[in-house]
Specification:
The structure holds two protein chains of two kinds. Chain A is of the alpha+beta class. Chain A is built from three helices and four strands, in the order αβαββαβ. Chain A has helices at about 1-25, 40-50, 80-90, and strands at about 30-35, 55-65, 70-75, 95-100. The chains are: A alpha+beta, B mainly beta.
């Protein structure tokens, strides 16, 4: 009986640890893009919508003052630079540079 | 027709100023002085919806017959971005018009309300320069106005005159150029447009040349923080239009056409998804031909949505 309780607790703690590790190492990528032409809130929405329609994109944040667009993806999605340029271009803007880092 | 003959004013006398007014409005609906649809960027394969309510009041009557005209317009605009350069615009107005005038024995009032003439046009951005926090766009646009409104509506007094019809009955064309300079602090738009009108029912509205300009200055937030805050813009716009005389059965109407200069202070609240805006247009100069009816004010309020 006592052995069974210890086994259950151990299994429970192991599950928690596994779950925690999956959160801690979510994978995915963050793309920080310098975008020219962003000059009003209404314009920013076009970019946000284009990215959020893309499968695997978890969040899109725009900083107007810095001309920065930050896109976070999950581990299933990666962007090539040309792909990012095309999306920004289709929204009516110009991507000047991009930096990417693992999340 | 009888109504107008009874007043001693020729049929065309009233139509002159009023049709100029109508043209100014329909042109403004395309240009959208407070919103400048023609200058608005629309992303590829995205839609934009705009609804604007307009109340136009005209009561300065040099003919002495105390004409008083009020028109309420609900203008719906839908814009689609074909790609990052080409956008398609459709504008559908619903018009409600009231006109009263002194006919000696008393005041006669007539009115009409229905869907008006639909306009559709395309805009192509042929030059765009993006910089950090700034953009410059130059575009050309061209389109048609289709006779979807009523042009033969009648009441108990007979067929309504053109100023009370919600459509002109004619297919008309228009086009122009629009330039936008936008920064995080201000936006400047300017537009030059020409409208070529055609005859219908032996009546032709004079062609119109129009220049619109709009300055939008961000007044809140004063200092930009991070993210995408809502903006409040103070707006000042100017509209200059000159219209040729109308023709009735091929003859110029001496009491139609002329030049108007309007100013419009306004406010805009701009967020990522929607814009609310309002402006009051008033004439600073009206140099109209003959006894064309003068404009008092145009009040505008509306919203735009990205979706």
């Amino acid at each position: 009986m006592k052995y069974s309780i210890i086994k259950s607790i151990t299994l429970f703690l192991a599950s928690i640890a596994l779950l925690w590790s999956s959160f801690s190492f979510a994978g995915g990528t963050q793309y920080d893009m310098r975008v020219d032409g962003l000059a009003c809130p209404f314009c920013a929405y076009g970019i946000e919508k284009k990215f959020t329609k893309t499968e695997g994109v978890e969040s899109v944040d725009v900083d107007l003052q810095k001309g920065l667009v930050i896109v976070k993806t999950n581990e299933s999605k990666t962007f090539k630079e040309d792909e990012l340029k095309t999306i920004i271009h289709d929204s009516g803007f110009t991507m000047k540079s991009v930096t990417e880092k693992a999340r | 027709m009888k109504f107008w003959r009874h007043t001693g004013i020729k049929y065309g006398c009233v139509t002159g100023g009023l049709s100029a007014l109508l043209l100014a409005v329909s042109s403004n609906i395309q240009a959208a002085p407070i919103t400048f649809n023609t200058a608005l960027p629309v992303a590829k394969e995205e839609f934009l919806f705009r609804q604007q309510f307009i109340v136009m009041q005209s009561g300065e009557d040099p003919s002495g017959t105390q004409r008083d005209r009020t028109e309420t317009i609900s203008a719906t605009a839908l814009v689609y971005g074909v790609n990052n350069k080409l956008a398609l615009f459709g504008i559908l107005p619903y018009r409600d018009i009231d006109l009263s005038m002194n006919v000696g024995a008393g005041t006669v009032s007539r009115s009409n309300a229905s869907l008006g003439d639909v306009s559709a046009f395309a805009r192509y951005i042929f030059r765009q320069k993006n910089e950090a926090g700034k953009t410059l766009r130059l575009a050309a646009f061209a389109g048609i106005k289709a006779p979807t409104g009523e042009d033969q509506a009648s009441d108990s007094l007979g067929t309504l005159p053109p100023p009370l019809q919600t459509g002109t009955g004619s297919w008309d064309v228009f086009g122009g150029l629009v330039v936008t300079r936008q920064t995080l602090d201000y936006q400047l738009d300017a537009q030059l447009s020409v409208r070529i009108n055609n005859a219908a029912n032996n009546f032709e509205v004079g062609d119109v040349l129009q220049i619109d300009a709009s300055l939008q200055k961000r007044i809140w937030p004063r200092e930009l923080g991070s993210g995408v805050p809502g903006f409040v813009y103070a707006v000042l716009e100017a509209n200059v239009s000159t219209q040729q005389k109308n023709t009735i059965n091929g003859t110029d109407d001496a009491n139609s056409g002329g030049t108007r200069v309007l100013l419009a202070p306004g406010l805009q609240y701009v967020t990522r998804r929607w814009i609310a805006e309002a402006a009051l247009q008033f004439p600073v100069r009206q140099n109209l031909n003959g006894t064309a009816l003068e404009l008092d004010t145009i009040a505008r309020a509306g919203v735009r949505f990205n979706f």
